[in-house]
């Protein structure tokens, strides 16, 4: 059995969405051993680094993080390799992997994105036809190695299609060392009341 850490490291100079300085986490030392114990404080967007979006993020009345059943955050996963795909992943692209996309599974999209290094304004994203295809397969969750699952789509239809069907969205995964194939995925959120998202520690096991 092998465990793969597919989470981004959290630090003050990590890449954040659209490189906005106000989205960078702030970490401060509040106490040191000289004063008794080492203690620190973090202030961060819930969409920092590796995180999961709850339906409430884009759906009025959608479920918030702490109300979602824990079995949504782990299970059988398939990593699909789209590193040769430029721009966006469409329904037709996903149809080629149709037999690997099983009901109740977690589908992870490995692309050319490198979220651990830089924020790429032209990151590869899941186009709305791809979201429709995945929603029709009744999967549990979708994950991608970009800091967002979509860009350049008016009204964020990819989020709406997936979250509207209670399909969770994991963003900011590091899939750079992961090969295409089947795994078990774990990515539990913090139990934050009324949250639209949560930072997670995401892991694959094979
Ligand atoms: Zn998000």
Q: Care to give the gist of this entry?
A:
11% of the residues lie in helices and 29% in strands.
Polypeptide structure, described:
By secondary structure, the protein is mainly beta. The chain contains 3 helices and 12 strands; from the N terminus they run ββββββαββαβαβββ. The strands form 3 sheets. It has a 7-stranded mixed β-barrel with strand order 4-10-9-7-5-11-12. A two-stranded antiparallel ribbon has the order 2-3. Strands 6-8 form a two-stranded parallel sheet. The mean pLDDT is 96. The protein binds zinc ion. The site of zinc ion (ZN) has 5 residues, from strand 4.
Keywords:
mainly beta, two-stranded antiparallel ribbon, 11% helix, globular, binds zinc ion
Write the topology of this structure.
Blueprint lengths: L2 E3 L20 E6 L7 E5 L7 E3 L20 E8 L6 E2 L1 H5 L10 E5 L14 E2 L1 H9 L4 E4 L12 H8 L3 E4 L9 E9 L7 E9 L1
Parallel strand pairs: 5-7, 6-8, 7-9, 9-10
Antiparallel strand pairs: 1-12, 2-3, 4-10, 4-12, 5-11, 11-12
Helix pairs in contact: 2-3
Give the neighbour order of strands across the main sheet.
4-10-9-7-5-11-12
Q: Helical content, roughly?
A: 10-25%
What's the overall geometry? globular
The helix-and-strand class reads mainly beta
Uncertain runs are none
């Amino acid at each position: 059995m092998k465990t793969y850490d597919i989470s981004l490291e959290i630090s003050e100079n990590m890449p954040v969405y659209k490189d906005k300085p106000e989205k960078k986490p702030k970490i401060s030392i509040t106490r040191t051993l000289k004063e008794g114990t080492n203690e620190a404080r973090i202030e961060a967007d819930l969409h920092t680094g590796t995180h999961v979006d709850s339906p409430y993020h884009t759906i009025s009345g959608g479920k918030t993080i702490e109300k979602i059943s824990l079995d949504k955050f782990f299970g059988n996963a398939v990593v699909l390799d789209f590193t040769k795909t430029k721009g966006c992943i469409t329904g037709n692209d996903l149809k080629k992997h149709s037999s690997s996309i099983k009901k109740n599974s977690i589908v992870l999209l490995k692309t050319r994105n490198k979220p651990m290094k830089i924020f790429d304004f032209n990151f590869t994203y899941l186009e709305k036809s791809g979201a429709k295809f995945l929603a029709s397969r009744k999967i549990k969750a979708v994950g991608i190695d970009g800091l967002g699952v979509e860009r350049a789509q008016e009204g964020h239809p990819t989020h709406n299609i997936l979250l509207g069907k209670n399909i969770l969205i994991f963003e900011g995964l590091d899939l750079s060392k992961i090969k295409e194939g089947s795994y078990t995925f774990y990515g539990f959120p913090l139990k934050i009341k009324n949250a639209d998202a949560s930072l997670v520690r995401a892991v694959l096991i094979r």
